[in-house]
Amino acid sequence: MHYLAMQYGYNAANHLDMYTGEHIYARFLEDFSMKYLFKARSMPDTDPNKKEFVAELFKTHYPAFLQSFESVLKGADCKFILGQRLTMYDFYLGGFFFNHVKNPLNPFAQQWAESKAPPKVEKYIKDFEEQMHEYL
Fold it and tell me: Which value, in Å, is the radius of gyration of the alpha carbons in the chain?
């Protein structure tokens, strides 16, 4: 992915931005997606623990990820994770919001709809949608 990002101008502008992008993406994968989201999606509906696990996912783990994500977003005037232009990290994380959170066919569509994102994250999602609307 880094090669393609470099070839087409979606790479981070400097090493600190690259660290920031890699850090939030790793936190998304390792602290949220792999531990909780994938598990919740793969649990059979007949599992007696699924309802409780999904409730905990949306009560605790998704809000924690949103707070973590909000903390790396630049100032209020920035549109994307690392500033004013899309980077490969926006494709990863912006893609998550549209493939899961805003997808009405997602098995957890009701829970995503009931979840409230912090203001900077809401702005990020809106800006990403405006930029990528013809592809979503």
Answer: 15
